[in-house]
Amino acid sequence: QGERVYGDYQTQVDRAGRMPAGRPLKLLVEVHGHARREVLGGQRVAIQVIEMATSGIDLATLRAIQARYDEATRSLPAALRVPLRIDRLDPSYLYRGHRVRFHFTALAAKRSGSLRPEKAARGLHLELPSALRSTAQGRQVAAQLVALIARGAE
What we know:
Elements: H1 2-16, E1 25-33, E2 37-40, E3 43-46, E4 50-55, H2 59-73, E5 84-86, E6 92-95, E7 98-101, H3 107-112, E8 120-128, H4 136-153
Parallel strand pairs: 1-8, 4-5
Antiparallel strand pairs: 2-3, 4-8, 6-7
Helix pairs in contact: 2-4
């Protein structure tokens, strides 16, 4: 059943991108939500970080995306100012003073799914925390940030 569901999904992605069969999309952006929790300092803590797995994007472009994101989020209210962590730049990162491993690697999508080079020349797989999904203001900010990130990857 999983293969059928994936096949249906990939058909819809190809159709949405208006790409002829066999030609990769120029850019695929997948947006998901996460409710990741980790034990940090003896307490279970919600990780309020965007994790972004990537494919086909060079390090200079990823650094530029990170810099634009950091600049854009400086003026946001503290509750919506969540960090962006990028798989190839941040295999682990500090969160509230604790070292955390990058979690949402999209490895299956990179190996055999929608983020393989033959499906998408460039790909972004974003995992948004609850802070950017639980309120109307958070969702509006999330939409703007995803657009900013996607423009940087074009």
